[in-house]
Target: Alpha/beta hydrolase
Amino acid sequence: MEHIFKEGESNAPTFLLLHGTGGDENDLLPLSQLLNPNFNVLSVRGEVSENGMNRFFKRFDEGQYDIEDLELRTNRLTSFLHEAAERYGFDLSQVIPVGFSNGANIAISMILHQDILFETALLYAPLYPIDITNDKDLSGMKVLLSMGENDPIVTTKDSERVIEIFESRGANVTQVWVNSHELTQAGVTAGQDLLNNRI
Model:
């Protein structure tokens, strides 16, 4: 997978940066520096092209996911994360997914995957309109959800559905409501606070 790895301080956690539709592995690097410049960074480019725009999985239309492809891409990304941890020497148990939009959505799929456990995740403008039978226990996990009250892509009901996915599985959820489908200073600050154990 096309990616960027930047080494941080010794024994530091690792941000797994997952961009939105049309982005690439460079997009969220500034965000990682704002969140904590001392952490390792593994920033990955989505392997799917939708009309020339990078994505992490296929879809049939807005909010209509190709479930088979989502499962395939989740497995591929999870396998790549294991390989990268071995290659670059970072601790898998200290990986923190940081995703925006499509990147946040593949992050949710990874979080629900049985073969990996994350303690913290920062998800901006997430959407996950899928019937889930997976009852994975997420108790002890801290999740930031930054959602838009006037998001033209993700309705308030859709956002509440994402909250429910995590809370019903025992995760400690921090909600930040912003205006639209966006990364904001309020979301960045909440991410910093969560990482610094102030939330």
Remarks:
- Residues 128 and 161 are 8 Å apart (CA to CA).
- The radius of gyration is 15 Å.
